[in-house]
Write a structure and sequence with these properties.
Layout: E1 2-8, E2 12-17, E3 31-36, E4 39-43, H1 51-58, E5 67-71, H2 77-80, H3 83-89, E6 94-98, H4 102-105, E7 114-118, E8 123-127, E9 130-136, E10 146-150, E11 155-159, H5 177-191, H6 195-205, E12 212-215, E13 221-222, H7 224-235
Parallel strand pairs: 4-5, 5-6, 6-7, 11-12
Antiparallel strand pairs: 1-2, 2-3, 3-4, 8-9, 9-10, 10-11, 12-13
Domain Metallo-beta-lactamase: 28-217
InterPro entries: Metallo-B-lactamas, ODP_dom, RibonucZ/Hydroxyglut_hydro
Length: 244
C-alpha cells in the first residue's frame, strides 16, 4: 500500500492507498490519517479486506496507542466494515460518524470503541491543539454524510465528492484535469442523488480555504484544480440513472 505525507507543519496528514494486494473486485480506496503529538485520527479506515495492510502501514508512522479516534464519512462497507477489527486493537478509541448511522455501523462490530454521533449541522474535534471540522455533505452521496476540514493545513477530506474510478496503479494526484473528467463523470451522476444538495454544499465549501481536496476514491486535487472541480461539479446534472 502506497503512503504519502501530505502535510507536515506542526501536525501531519498521511494518505494511504493503491494497495496492489487487494482483491481484484474490491474498489480501490484512499485512507487518511492526521497525527498531532499524542493523538491521531484515521479517516474512513476502509473495508475488512484491507485491514491488515492498513494497520501495518499506520504502524510505520505512529504507535497503536496513539490512534485515539476514527472517522467514518458514512455507513458504506468500503468506509468502515473493518470496524470490528479496529475494535480489537483500539479498545479505547472513539468513532465519529453521523448520528443517523449508529444503528447500522454497529453491525460491523463495536464492543469497545465508543460511538460519538455527529449532529446534522456538524461539529468540531480538537485533536490536542488543532481543530478539525466535521463538515456536512448530506446526500453526497449518503443521507447522513460528513467531510473533514482542517483549516490550518487547508485540506478537505471530501469523501465521495471528487471520487474517480480508475485502473490499478493510478497516480495519487490529478495530473491533467481535462483527461480526468471521464473518470469522475459517471460516478458523480449516478451516486450523487440531489442537485439541490450539491448546490448547497458548493455554496458553503467555496468559502473555505483549500489547498488539497482529498476524496476517498481516485486522485487528489490541488491548487487551481480545486476550483476547476467545483465549476465542473456545479454544471453537472446529478442523480441520473441509465434508462432501461
Amino acid at each position: 500500500m502506497d503512503a504519502l505525507k501530505l502535510y507536515d507543519q506542526g501536525h501531519q496528514w498521511y494518505v494511504f492507498g493503491r494497495d496492489p494486494d487487494k482483491p481484484e473486485k474490491i474498489i480501490d480506496t484512499n485512507q487518511f490519517m492526521i497525527v498531532n503529538d499524542e493523538r491521531s485520527i484515521v479517516l474512513d479506515p476502509g473495508g475488512i479486506e484491507i485491514f491488515s495492510t492498513m494497520l501495518a502501514s499506520i504502524l510505520k508512522y505512529v504507535d497503536i496507542d496513539k490512534v485515539t479516534d476514527l472517522f467514518a464519512s458514512h455507513q458504506d462497507p468500503d468506509i468502515i466494515s473493518s470496524l470490528g477489527m479496529w475494535d480489537q486493537v483500539l479498545p479505547n478509541a472513539t468513532l465519529h460518524c453521523s448520528w443517523l448511522w449508529e444503528g447500522f455501523v454497529c453491525h460491523f462490530g463495536m464492543d469497545h470503541i465508543r460511538y460519538e454521533p455527529i449532529p446534522d449541522e456538524g461539529r468540531s474535534l480538537h485533536l490536542d491543539d488543532i481543530e478539525l471540522r466535521f463538515f456536512p455533505a448530506h446526500y453526497l452521496h449518503s443521507s447522513g454524510n460528513f467531510q473533514v476540514y482542517d483549516p490550518k493545513a487547508k485540506i478537505l477530506f471530501s469523501g465521495d465528492v471528487g471520487a474517480a474510478l480508475e485502473p490499478p496503479g493510478a497516480p495519487l494526484f490529478v495530473d491533467d484535469f481535462e483527461q480526468h473528467l471521464d473518470k469522475m463523470r459517471y460516478f458523480h451522476q449516478r451516486w450523487m442523488p440531489s442537485n439541490e444538495a450539491k448546490m448547497h454544499w458548493l455554496q458553503r465549501v467555496r468559502k473555505l480555504e483549500i489547498d488539497i481536496l482529498a476524496p476517498q476514491h481516485g486522485r487528489l486535487f490541488k491548487g487551481r484544480q480545486i476550483e476547476q472541480f467545483f465549476d465542473w461539479f456545479e454544471d453537472l446534472d446529478v442523480g441520473i440513472a441509465t434508462k432501461p
